[in-house]
Amino acid sequence: MADIQPYMRDGYTKEFHTTVKSIADGKFVTLNETYFYPTSGGQPHDTGVLKTADGREVKVIFVGLFGEQPSHQVEPEGVLKVGDEVTGTIDWDRRYTHMRMHTAAHLVSKVFEDKKGAVVTGNQLGLDKSRIDYELDDYNPDELRAFEDVVNEFIEQSLDVTSHVVSREEAEELLDRLSTLKMGFPEHITQVRLVQIGDIDMQACGGTHLANTKEAGKVKFLKFDNKGKNNRRVYFTVE
Ligand SMILES: [Zn+2]
Q1: How does pLDDT run across 127-157, given as a tens digit for each residue?
Q2: From ligand 1's centre to the CA of 198, what distance in Å?
Q3: What letters, b where the CB count within 10 A reaches 16 and e where it falls short, cover 60-93?
Q4: Ligand 1: centre distance to CA 210 (Å)
Q5: Containing domain of residue 54, as a range?
Q6: What CA–CA distance (Å, rounded) separates 25 from 82?
Q7: Residue 101 lies in a domain
Q8: Contact of 11 with 3, CB cutoff 8 Å
Q9: Are residues 134 and 197 in the same domain?
Q10: What is the Å distance from ligand 1's center to 42 Cα?
Q11: How do residues 9-61 score in pLDDT, each as one tens digit?
């Protein structure tokens, strides 16, 4: 997880003002603060534009984390200068779809953990479909398919999704008590962002989420893959 970034405090900001902090190789731009989400934790980066008051404009085509700092790959090169005041606008359709997928992924993971004791090992969100990887001894696709209804019941309960930042020690204690899978925080992490869905789920997560489960719409399981007990996979989408 990155250090606490503006997009973690507010996932609904689509446009913001900031200053260009550095530029490397003419095209890797860091900003004094950013709401652009960098590829991390299975959630793909945002895209959008950066625009100066005097009408210069670049596209943001990739955002990655370099160290703890989100870096924006822009095109064309050579348009922005360090110190430029810019307006950042995020491609909202793309981001919002990732927020719906991401929030749904928390719910799918939760249901698989609760109902089957599955251990979630990874996830990859996409615009058309997302997948969750998990370990599970006893594998029965028909049984798993029925959990789609359980996920959708949670969505229909209109549960608020909230986040707060706590110390690493407090996070470890809380997650232990909830027997939630602890991913093992990297050494340097001193603060952890916890994402809570109603009173049913809490996870340490740095991604962007909906404010309420209702916005996810309807989750549909697309496919189950069985690659051995340590590598099962479910593909889903949101409608
Ligand atoms: Zn999350």
Answers
A1: 999 999 999 888 888 999 999 999 999 999 9
A2: 14
A3: bebbebeeebbbbbbeeeebbeeebebebbbeee
A4: 10
A5: 10-90
A6: 13
A7: yes
A8: no
A9: yes
A10: 9
A11: 899 999 999 999 999 999 999 999 999 999 998 999 999 999 999 999 999 99
Q: What percent of the chain has pLDDT over 90?
A: 75
Number of domains the chain is built from: 2
Torsion, Cα of 164, 182, 205, 198 (10° steps):
-60
Do 64 and 74 form a contact (C-beta atoms < 8 A)? Answer: no
For residues 28 and 73, the answer to whether their CB atoms sit within 8 Å is yes
Domain boundary among 56, 90, 124: 90
The answer, yes or no, to whether residue 228 has pLDDT greater than 90, is no
Q: Domain ends where: 64, 90, 116?
A: 90
Kindly state the helix (H) or strand (E) to which residue 75 belongs, with its residue range: strand 69-75
Whether 36 is covered by a domain: the verdict is yes
Task: Determine if the pTM surpasses 0.85.
Answer: yes
